[in-house]
Amino acid sequence: MNTGAMKILLAVSSRHGSTEEIGHVIAERLRAAGHDVDQARPEDVVDVTPYGAFVLGSAVYMTHWTNEAVAFTERFRDALRAHPVWAFSVGLAGLPKGKVSDPHRIGPVLLSIDPEDHVTFPGTFDPSRLSLRERSIATLGGATEGDFRDLDAVREWADAIAGTLSSGI
Ligand SMILES: Cc1cc2nc3c(=O)[nH]c(=O)nc-3n(C[C@H](O)[C@H](O)[C@H](O)COP(=O)(O)O)c2cc1C
């Protein structure tokens, strides 16, 4: 189908910034590989017709993607199903034991858009950036304070996407 540079929409939903920063790293790598990338919050996207591929990411709260990310998949389902889509989640499930598990409630959303790949990257837990309610929920869920992001793993994932798109998917 397509070869060479691709216009990509990177739609990233973040409440407190850690997922958005992961999005910036992905954008940087895709651009370094010669692709044309627009990064936006899913709720701000009104038209997806210019894009030949999508990278969609969301922070995970209470085992779900954000409402904005889910609404995006519903609004643009046909376009998403017609083009290559890569998805990532950012969460703390499983930490601090070391392994982040795929938050199972995301499954139906991903099935509906049939992505090429979905990965879960570890996020952050910074109580000072949260409301008392969020802090209590995260603490009850066993979260440990810290920034667990592995930006090398993010870069590697983005490079794999760039390579697939450059070689023509
Ligand atoms: C109230 C609350 C609920 C959370 N629920 C989950 C969860 O169900 N699964 C998970 O993997 N991470 C969960 N997390 C961790 C967040 O996904 C993590 O802090 C992430 O880095 C937040 O991304 P953001 O800074 O882009 O909003 C929760 C965090 C908070 C504060």
Automatic annotation (TrEMBL):
InterPro entries: Flavodoxin_dom, Flavoprotein-like_sf, Protoporphyrinogen_IX_DH. GO terms for biological process: heme biosynthetic process. Residues 9-137 form the Flavodoxin domain. Pfam families: Flavodoxin_5. It comes from the Bacteria. Transmembrane segments: none annotated. GO terms for molecular function: FMN binding; menaquinone-dependent protoporphyrinogen oxidase activity. PANTHER family: PROTOPORPHYRINOGEN IX DEHYDROGENASE [MENAQUINONE], PROTOPORPHYRINOGEN IX DEHYDROGENASE [QUINONE]. This is Protoporphyrinogen oxidase. It comes from Actinomyces howellii.
